Amino acid sequence: MDTWQLQDAKARFSEVVRRAGQHGPQAITVRGKPEVVLLSKAEFDRLSRPKPSFAAFLQDSPLMEIELDIERDQSTDRAVDL
User: Fold this and answer.
1) CATH of domain 2-64
2) Where are the domains of the chain?
3) What is the CA radius of gyration of the chain?
4) I need a labelling partner for 26 at 20 to 30 A (CA). Which of 38, 39, 50, 76 fits?
5) Are 38 and 25 in contact (CB under 8 A)?
């Protein structure tokens, strides 16, 4: 991510916008501290789209069709070494 001082970003705004579209987010600092990040519209849309629920994520998994052979021990006691 490129970093720009605010006064440079204002003077070269077209370049900052072009770089955000072609090279990714551009950080802008105010008095040496990171203040804002300029993103392309495509990157913003990707980051802000709704995320599926965990249940939907699991249901869409390619592993959903695999059958698991799970057997549970039905005994009520177990040996314990003391």
Assistant:
1) 3.40.1620.10
2) 2-64
3) 26
4) 50
5) yes
